Amino acid sequence: MFASWQVTERPLDCPDDYNLSDSVHPTIINNMCAGSNNTNIAQPEGPAGNDIKLILVAGATGYVGRQLVNALEISHYRVRYLARRPEALRSCVSDMTKVVQGDVLNRDSLYSGLMGIHTAFYLVHSMASGDDFAEVDRRAAQNFATIARESGVKRIIYLGGLGGDEDLSPHLASRHEVGRILRDSGIPTIELRASIIIGSGSLSFEMIRSLVEKLPIMITPRWVQSQAQPIAIEDVIAYLAEAIKVPLEHSKVFEIGGPDRISYKGIMKEYAQQHGLRRLMIPVPVLTPYLSSLWLGLVTPLYVRIGRTLIESIKNPTVVDDCTALDYFAVRPRGIKIAIKQALKKEDITRKI
């Protein structure tokens, strides 16, 4: 029933593109045309015989999307890559992968990309596009869902965010809304809701890295105590790829995360320890999300535009409350110590290259 995965870490015990603003982290740009031989990501068994179906990845230029495309190519899936400027990306993919032009904000441009597709990955997110990101995400998802249904797509796989349904930040509320839009299309949809993704290039991980490496003494607001259930990028890719073959009659939401429930403060301490850094954290209760975003922008310019949106999301606990994913997927995510260790090791290899 399940694909085979090369995962050896401890099992999970039950109890984070196609960027519409063209904002891509430098790490992603440097590695966009590399990593096709990445053996750190568990690979699914490739399709056999006439089981080969055409797969579309929308959002393939992002951190998760690029690694997913590599994993699918290694497993010999037929992949189609949706991009607004395909000419800039064709040299970054294998001969097996076709790059087609399409913009999720232009409904008519999606027909050529979605026609003949069996499974479509939707990894689009526009948090960096400004204060109207929720409206942009809404229109993009509606366009994609409509054309996918008209084109006869059989399955949609979407990566969203964990968090309860009440008092969500605008960012997480938008992620949940996009999932509902895709499920309401009538196409069986798998929505994978994840917490912080641990890996070099992940926005949340890069934020943690910048704070720990640049600030020996940190004035920490209350949000650093928020509980999360981080998951390694390798395990996110494993879930996404396995979702192609998971038995599915109707749409379903799966919550995914590593085995450790830990605060942002705990993650920062673990990162510092693995880097051999001593850091002093002084808690203060009055640092608002707005002030936190300004402070974050000073420490790391990457977050000048998205800092407040990201910080507002951190106030929400992002933990797994429903362990149903364990019944459907063979993936058993690794813990936070191993996830950070592998992220740092992979980064060291990339720097040497």
SSE layout and pairing:
Blueprint: E1 18-19, H1 26-31, E2 54-58, H2 63-74, E3 78-83, E4 98-101, H3 111-114, E5 119-122, E6 124-125, H4 133-150, E7 155-161, H5 170-183, E8 189-194, E9 197-198, H6 203-214, E10 217-220, E11 227-228, E12 231-232, H7 233-242, E13 252-256, E14 262-263, H8 264-275, E15 280-283, H9 289-299, H10 307-314, H11 325-328, H12 336-352
Parallel strand pairs: 1-6, 2-3, 2-5, 3-4, 5-7, 7-8, 8-13, 9-12, 10-15
Antiparallel strand pairs: 11-14
Helix pairs in contact: 2-7, 4-5, 6-8, 8-12, 9-10
Descriptive notes:
This protein is α/β, with parallel strands linked by helices. The protein has a single domain, classed as Rossmann fold (3-Layer(aba) Sandwich). The protein is built from 12 helices and 15 strands. The strands form 5 sheets. A 7-stranded parallel beta sheet has the order 4-3-2-5-7-8-13, sandwiched between helices. Strand 7 (155-161), helix 5 (170-183) and strand 8 form a beta-alpha-beta unit. Helix 6 packs across helix 8 (264-275). The termini are far apart. Mean pLDDT is 79; it is low at 1-46.
